[in-house]
Design goal:
The structure holds two protein chains of two kinds.
Chain A (H helix, E strand, L loop, with lengths): L9 H10 L1 H23 L4 H17 L1 H14 L3 E5 L2 H14 L4 E4 L3 H6 L1 H7 L3 E4 L2 H9 L15 H11 L12 H18 L2 E4 L3 E3 L4 E6 L3 H8 L2 E7 L3 E2 L2 H16 L6 E5 L13 E7 L22 H4 L2 H6 L10 H12 L1 H4 L1 H4 L6 H5 L6 H14 L5 H14 L2 H17 L5 E2 L6 H4 L4 E2 L6 H11 L1
Parallel strand pairs in A: 1-10, 2-3, 2-4, 4-7, 5-8, 7-10
Antiparallel strand pairs in A: 5-6, 6-9, 11-12
Chain B lengths: L13 E4 L3 H5 L2 H13 L3 E3 L8 H5 L3 H15 L4 E4 L2 H14 L7 H9 L1 E3 H8 L7 E8 L3 H7 L3 H8 L2 E5 L15 H4 L1 H18 L3 E4 L2 H13 L5 E4 H5 L14
Parallel strand pairs in B: 1-2, 1-3, 3-4, 5-6, 5-7, 7-8
Helix pairs in contact in B: 5-6, 5-8, 7-9, 11-12
Classes of the chains: A alpha/beta, B alpha/beta.
Chain lengths: 474, 260
């Protein structure tokens, strides 16, 4: 029931994305904003880099003692009146959540934004069992109307233009007067808000994700900019948190370290508009709050990453900065990556969670420009981890035969310098015979290059042979 | 170098020039421009038998070949006082990744680290190590692209600009986003040609918008990518390696222009 993995078709997906006029328009509109806002926020915080170091070290410490912190966390959730459910697989997580919903006779479920629920395909699963999930984050609400999945970690509807959203609202919100102005983002927001308000009140269960889980208090933390998460979790009979295991942090102080980095890096805000700490269910004397509080802790392959070559990826706090700064992401958008997580973080995490056989295209689809690592708030060496995947692919002979043989042939020459010098000297002279115009518009075996660009012709002789001649003359 | 002792009384610095495979095969004049700059600064330049630094193998996941080529390069270059490369990307391979390739290898790790410590990209070597300012003349506006590996692995940003500032008649106009990838990415550009094309299209638009008549950078791979796109688009912007300008070799054909 998990989301279908379409990552092996990255190339075809990318081709389609490049031809999609609306998508290209949406991508072009969003590119600069994220980058400039982050830059301004980071420049205002002199200790930003030191903070990144502490965040990295803290995550490494947590990952080294993950079992310990999870146990403490569970104990404190229970002590504060909540329930903890452990799920090894996505299916198990879905079953647990369905079980709670069915016990409470839930008909509709309000949902805050959660990438983990995308990982488990929760919405489709609930729907199949007669329960209606309603996304309450504006971006998520839009893509739910469109029957799509998020294309970005924090801006799920990044791929949609506001003109498309207006058309979707007019289609879905029957009874909307045609003269009603929906030209501006604010008027769209007002329309969605009005629609959602009823849904919040009608929902039997509220499901949210978690940005952090705090071991010392048993609290879950979410950050939102619309406040939808708070309504989702306080108005319903039960609040279910779905979270992956690596979200746990030891103390509130530690959560603050990450919170100081998260919003700045993600959207350029000092803090998100709402940062909500939830500890247990409604207590006697509380004016409101859910009657039940559940946490579903999902592994889904993460414990296999511990202690291995990809453990650093578990430091990720899902800010989205890596994709915001990625030239490939900006060219093709998030859906081309073919699964839940796009961009550089997705290129590392996807093969870790769905297998390199299915996810192997993604770590290859990178220029290794390194901008992702440069902006990562927890200093994940993303290019290095992508290279690790390429190595795994190479070991497993998963790369295309042509690329493999090409590389092998080149390596056979490159390992024999004297033969290499003689052969290349001849080859370049030969190639030069056809390159009188200084460039090639087409070259055999180089269609990948010459489809879009000319290939500058070689000068004729190689540097090494010319240098030898010069040295002999002296 | 006028403030230092005359070259004759001192033993010249021996520099091994690692031309890089692209310069060796496609554009030897970058190798000669580099040699000239180093010799003008009083270095004794040598070009040992060489092939490739191994980066294509390394980035394709073939660690074994990468290691073999690294060992070959270490053997060829460790004899010199310094190794200099006219490429931030290949210099990054030697400086950052050779030690990584031999991590924990008692025989090779120290040799890799020793070579890494005395290896420099050309503009860094001229500006930071030799502290020279080559004098050259170039009349016109140029724009400079920061190639990714040099910029992010080695922090090359100020050095080429400082050197260019000393070129008489040269006017450096910054393009928008000079530090954003050109879409080359080594084998990326042929494995994902359509995505690469989208990225280089943005780059050539920024280059053209700068109004400069000449594009410079420090890496031939990126230069060939951008030159190939500019010529396909019919944009009349000449493309050169920075060494050619610093060495005063701009009388020769630019990248993608016919040989005379």
């Amino acid at each position: 029931m998990t989301q279908t993995v379409n990552s092996p078709h990255f190339k075809e997906n990318a081709r389609k994305a490049l031809d999609d006029v609306f998508l290209q328009q949406a991508l072009a509109r969003s590119e600069k904003g994220f980058i400039e806002r982050r830059k301004a926020a980071v420049e205002k915080l002199p200790e930003y880099d030191a903070l990144r170091d502490s965040a990295r070290d803290l995550k490494d410490h947590i990952l080294a003692h993950l079992d310990l912190y999870l146990e403490v966390y569970e104990k404190n959730v229970i002590a504060s009146g909540g329930h903890v459910h452990w799920a090894t697989t996505a299916e198990e997580a879905n079953e647990i959540i369905l079980g709670i919903c069915q016990r409470l006779n839930a008909k509709t479920v309000a949902k805050g934004k959660s990438m983990i629920s995308e990982e488990t395909g929760l919405n489709a699963y609930l729907k199949k069992h007669g329960i209606r999930p309603i996304e309450t984050d504006l971006g998520e609400y839009i893509i739910q109307l469109r029957g799509e999945t998020p294309s970005h970690l924090i801006a799920p509807a990044l791929h949609v233009t506001k003109e498309q959203i207006e058309a979707d609202f007019r289609r879905a919100h029957t009874g909307l007067p045609p003269e009603r102005n929906l030209d501006e983002p604010t008027s769209l927001l007002a329309e969605a808000r009005a629609m959602l308000r009823e849904k919040f009140l009608a929902a039997d269960v509220g499901i949210t994700g978690a940005n952090f889980l705090i071991a010392e208090t048993g609290s879950s933390v979410i950050v939102t900019n619309e406040g939808n998460g708070d309504l989702t979790q306080t108005l319903a009979k039960a609040h279910i948190v779905i979270s992956s295991i690596e979200k746990v942090v030891p103390t509130r102080e530690d959560a603050a370290t990450f919170l100081r980095l998260l919003a700045r890096t993600a959207s350029g805000l000092d803090l998100s508009v709402y940062t909500t700490f939830s500890t247990g269910a409604r207590r006697a004397g509380d004016p409101d709050g859910p009657l039940e509080y559940h946490v579903v802790l999902l592994d889904n392959g993460r414990s296999n990453m511990l202690g291995g070559k990809f453990q650093d990826m578990l430091r990720c706090i899902r800010c989205g900065a890596c994709m915001n700064h990625c030239p490939v992401f900006h060219a093709v958008g998030g859906h081309a990556y073919g699964w839940v997580y796009p961009g550089p973080m997705g290129a590392v995490l996807t093969p870790s969670l769905v297998g390199v056989e299915k996810g192997g295209q993604l770590p290859n689809a990178s220029t290794f420009c390194g901008r992702c690592e440069e902006v990562c708030p927890v200093r994940i060496p993303l290019p290095k981890l992508m290279r690790n995947w390429r190595e795994r692919e190479f070991e497993l002979h998963l790369q295309p035969a042509a690329a493999r043989y090409g590389l092998g042939l080149w390596a056979a020459f490159a390992r024999r310098p004297a033969i290499y010098r003689a052969t290349t000297s001849l080859a370049m002279k030969f190639l030069r015979l056809f390159g009188g115009k200084g460039r090639f518009r087409a070259l055999p075996l180089a269609g990948g290059w010459t489809r879009h660009r000319d290939f500058p012709a070689p000068q004729g002789e190689t540097f090494q042979s010319l240098w030898r001649k010069r040295s002999q003359k002296r | 170098m006028s403030d230092k002792a005359p070259a004759a009384t001192r033993k010249p610095i021996r520099v091994g020039l690692f031309a890089t495979c692209l310069v060796d095969l496609i554009r030897p004049r970058i190798g000669f421009a580099s040699a000239k700059l180093l010799e003008d600064a009083g270095c004794a330049v040598e070009v040992p038998l060489q092939t490739c630094c191994g980066q294509p193998a390394f980035n394709s996941g073939d660690r074994k070949t990468a290691r073999e080529l690294a060992a070959q390069a270490i053997e060829a270059f460790e004899q010199y006082d310094y190794t200099v490369l006219p490429s931030g990307s290949c210099a990054g391979q030697v400086i950052v990744h050779y030690p990584e390739l031999f991590e924990g290898n008692a025989a090779w790790e120290p040799r890799a680290k020793a070579l890494a410590a005395k290896t420099f990209e050309l503009t860094v070597f001229l500006n930071d190590v030799l502290k020279v300012t080559p004098s050259a003349r170039f009349d016109g506006a140029v724009t400079y692209h920061d190639s990714c590996s040099g910029l992010r692995e080695l922090g090359i940003k100020a050095q080429p600009r400082k050197l260019l500032a000393n070129v008489e008649g040269l006017n450096l106009v910054e393009m928008k986003d000079p530090d954003v990838c050109c879409g080359f990415g080594g084998t990326f550009c042929v494995k994902y040609p359509d995505v690469s094309n989208k990225i280089v299209e943005k780059k050539t638009a920024n280059i053209a918008a700068s109004g400069a008549g000449t594009l410079l950078a420090g890496d031939l791979g990126c230069l060939m990518n951008m030159a190939g796109k500019l010529s396909r688009e019919g944009k009349e912007i000449r493309v050169r390696h920075i060494a050619e300008v610093l060495a005063g070799m701009t009388g020769e054909p630019a990248i993608g222009e016919p040989e005379r």
